[in-house]
Amino acid sequence: MTKIPKTRLQVMWNRLLAVVEEQGQALIRAAFSPIVRESGDISAGIFDIRGRMLAQAVTGTPGHINTMAEAVRHLRDRFPVQDMKPGDIYMTNDPWLASGHLNDFLLMQPVFFGGRVVGFTSCTSHLADLGGKGMGPEGSDIYDEGLMIPPCKLVDAGNLNDFLMEIIRVNSREPIANEGDIYALIACCETGARRLAEMMREFGIDDLDDLAEYIIGTSCRGTLDAIADVPNGTYRHELIVDGYDRPIKLAATLTVTDDHVLLDYDGTSGCSDKGINVPLNYATAYSVFALRCIIGPDIPNNAGSLEPFRVAGPPGCILNAQHPAPVAMRHSLGQMTPDLVYGCLVQALPDKVPAEGASCLYDVPLRHTPEAARDGGTQFALELVYNGGTGARPTKDGLSATAFPSGVWGSQVEPTEATAPVLITRRELLPGSGGAGTYRGGLGQHIEICSATHEDFLAFLSVERIRFPAAGRHGGRPGRAGRLRIGADGPDLPAKGEFRIPAGASLILETPGGGGYGPPEQRDAGAVRRDIEDGLVDPAANDAKGATP
Fold first, then answer.
1. What is d(CA 368, CA 458) in angstroms, rounded to the nearest whole number?
2. Is 142 helix (H, G, I), strand (E, B) or coil?
3. How far apart are CA 11 and CA 8, in angstroms?
4. Distant-in-sequence, close-in-space partners of 346: CB < 8 Å, separation ≥ 6
5. Helix, strand and coil percent figures for the chain, each rounded to 5
6. Measuring CA to CA, how many Å separate 233 from each of 268, 312, 330, 345?
7. pLDDT, tens digit, for every residue of 84-132?
8. Which end of the chain is flanked by fewer CB atoms within 10 Å, N or C?
């Protein structure tokens, strides 16, 4: 067989990235739930015949993308390739195989070309409701948290599994949205499969073998070169986070060698009785993402660039929760792992690591009350997401109201109010919430949500940075802590729990600010003046001092 020139392989790689991006956009455009179509809480990818990820859509969260990279391997091993037929699509929402909690559905479709399987397309997105106690931290085990679907066929040779769809519908408070979102996932897989086959036909190739080896080999070599720039050694760090009813210790040991990086969570607190536990696949996804943001960030994310990174943790620690631990709100601590990782990595690369940020999404599932369901009131289930400020960077301020590490876009006012009986009466940046420094931390935001009817509603909260704000780096000051309350004069709420919002009152969220970087007194005077003029700081507060405007 004629060897394909490298220049042609590179062109094909670029085309593959375009294909997978179209695949992801198909999911977003067809989805019903606002968290998918407005916030981009998805993943989409293309895999070779061995189940190795070759490309991922730019839009998507690390929690979905990097878990998908491993989940396809599991499904590929579970279902023999020789038994697959054109039009088959497989599905699961098993948290330990898919994306860490039940609300994320993962699909995989074999791609046929020339009468045989040549690869796979896959995608993940978040479904609004799967019964049980719903999206909240109050479950005592996985069975409290809703419907779990083991790996199975969703579509058999083009025929939808109607019985499975009916099971999903009758186990949800949002059956129409769930059904629509599953169809969107199917469309995503089918779009990727169709475009991949068209690409192979256009380039005149019969399989993806040569392209896969080029992508994975090139990416792995580039990543190893980037690792070589990190001093070998062992680096340890601990991070104390809010937890549910008591603080939790997250601990990590980062070992850097010539050919791999190992992160070990030994020393981390044990599991919680509440649904904030994290399966190892999800903790790994965010930890490796954080490492890759510093080590070889320009290298595309695929099986090759992920291969040198390894993560371990003692079974039963809160970052390696075992079945049947409750994991509904696994994002709360899973998204704190980048700050844990950076506490290690800054010891090796002191000038490349940002300050701590808000990190954890301010995820706000809302739902009707039990009496609304019983007495014919308005019924709904909606999940909103808001972001705090990122940590200041070594050469720039932090970003305000920006999701890092999740990348999930904040919920917008108009789609929220069009979807559910709630009003967003106030949403604005929170001046002074970013930590002072040579470079200022990003700002959090102030949001007020109330009922649009005479009925109460429920909020299921699981956030972080209420007790322990984002720390500054290299002399930068901490960001402001987050704050939750019902009504402007109401007492502060804990970071996690189920809360009833009375009609006529507002749920008030103040998301955390990012930590500052470097001594505040070294901040450029012009930057201080612009901060004051733009209303980003209080001129009488500490974060405006240290330079003369």
1. 6
2. helix
3. 5
4. 353, 473
5. 30, 20, 45
6. 21, 17, 30, 10
7. 999 999 999 999 999 999 999 999 999 999 999 999 999 999 999 999 9
8. N
